[in-house]
Design brief:
With 430 residues, this protein is of the alpha/beta class. It has six helices and 24 strands. Strands 10-11-13-12-15-16-21-22 form an eight-stranded mixed β-sheet, with helices on both faces. Strands 2, 4, 5, 6, 7, 8 and 9 form a seven-stranded mixed β-sheet that branches. Strands 14-17-18 form a three-stranded mixed β-sheet.
């Protein structure tokens, strides 16, 4: 009897799993298909073609995929190369606490390029992919002007079968988590960081609840209020905190590192080092923004928008007043760059920011072939997607295999960086 298994059957979304097929005939050609349905009802799937070994087994960690969504030996290939059936969808877990993604694995005899109701798998199984570990607490935040969700590490005893142990009573190192130009509140990265022992405030700053629907300016006093709120939490260990941001959120994170002494460790992922589109206000200070040159938008594949040319040349002296004065940063900054980012020239912005800083205060991780949306491992590449506020989908760039490797490596580096500069977490693997 043919059997396919995923081990462990329930796991965190940033942790590896092993897929194994047994009971095949030696050298049998089979198709492995993975699929899930997101909370919007969109299907994401991948498939790869394998020949069983002499024992009648297929292990993607040992056996190369001959074709399909990827080729070669990729233990997590069926998860890393999930793609939407409908164009321009991005796989994002919204309800990170209430439910996992339910991943379906199926094995078909022979070459199965498409799957219809008449196709019956030889074997199938299901696996859960969670964005929080057991015991992680989510606390909605509506205090003063600040809106978001606070994720606290597990403190209750857990079963020996889980992959992390209780983090103890705390306090825990604190981190503010920011996303970009889509606005709203995105929580999946905060849930994963909390599972690793950080107290994380997933922070919204526009287009959420009663916050402004669009981003007119970066009001640093709002982010200062959020930092002070996080540090007042009894489960948060001060005196400093960390910030992680991607895209517009990285721009905000760099500004927070510059102006807020509470910020001692900053992770900047594919952002800018200048104010773009929105001025920065902080007390009596105003930093003007570089306008977007929207007439430079280019239509590319299937009508998607390539925005990479809408940014003015940051090296032009006329824009010097829009630079974030990173020489004022007293903490540490980790710059994470995808060299195939088609959102904007992230590597140039990182280099310009670092040129103003002490070499000891910053570090660059630069990944050839990686795109704009560098996320925790297990997140499939999203090279183009629809985004709030734009009439057409936006190109993010990236090559699937290079991007997957970048996510796997950078995530471990990010965790180590935060632990180094905020103090160790007390969560350990069992």
């Amino acid at each position: 009897m043919v059997e396919v298994t995923v081990t462990p059957q329930s796991s965190l979304a940033d942790r590896p799993v092993q897929v194994h097929v047994r009971g095949l005939s030696p050298s049998q050609l089979v198709t492995l298909r993975a699929w899930l349905v997101d909370e919007q009802g969109d299907i994401f799937q991948s498939r790869a073609f394998f020949r069983a070994d002499e024992a009648g087994e297929v292990d993607p960690g040992r056996h190369p995929a001959l074709g399909g969504s990827y080729t070669g030996v990729w233990p997590m290939g069926l998860l890393w190369f999930l793609q939407p059936d409908a164009l321009f969808r991005r796989l994002v877990k919204r309800d990170v606490v209430g439910s996992p993604f339910l991943l379906h694995l199926e094995v078909f005899d022979g070459l199965c390029l498409v799957t219809g109701p008449q196709d019956r798998p030889l074997a199938s199984c299901e696996a859960e992919r969670w964005y929080v570990g057991p015991g992680v607490q989510r606390v909605p935040i509506r205090e003063g002007r600040v809106r978001g969700a606070l994720f606290l590490p597990p403190v209750a005893p857990l079963l020996p079968a889980v992959t992390v142990s209780p983090a103890g009573p705390g306090p825990f190192p604190g981190v503010i988590d920011l996303f970009g130009g889509a606005g709203g509140l995105i929580e999946f990265r905060a849930g994963l960081l909390a599972t690793r022992g950080f107290a994380v405030l997933a922070l919204a700053f526009f287009a959420y609840e009663d916050l402004p629907p669009t981003l007119a300016q970066l009001d640093m006093e709002y982010f200062e209020e959020a930092a002070e709120l996080l540090l007042r939490q009894p489960k948060v260990r001060g005196p400093g905190l960390g910030v992680i941001g991607v895209s517009k959120g990285a721009e905000v994170a760099l500004a927070m590192a510059t102006f807020l002494p509470q910020v001692v460790a900053t992770v900047w992922i594919n952002g800018t080092a200048f104010l773009h589109g929105n001025p920065l206000l902080y007390r009596d200070l105003r930093i003007p923004s570089i306008p977007y040159f929207v007439e430079r938008i280019v239509f590319v594949e299937m009508g998607a928008l390539d925005n990479s040319a809408i940014f003015g040349d940051p090296q032009d002296p006329m824009y010097s007043s829009s630079a974030i004065p990173t020489e004022k940063i007293s903490g540490k900054v980790l710059f994470v760059v995808g060299e195939a980012d088609r959102g904007f020239n992230s590597k140039l912005f990182a280099q310009l920011a670092m040129a103003r800083m002490s070499p000891a205060s910053c570090r660059l991780l630069s990944y050839p072939g990686a795109g704009h949306l560098i996320e925790p491992p297990g997140s499939p590449l999203c090279s183009v997607s629809s985004i709030r506020g734009t009439p057409k989908p936006v190109v993010w760039g990236g090559e699937a295999q290079a991007h997957a490797k970048a996510q796997e490596h950078s995530w471990q580096e990010i965790i180590q960086f935060l632990e180094l500069h905020l103090g160790p977490t007390t969560t350990v693997k069992l």
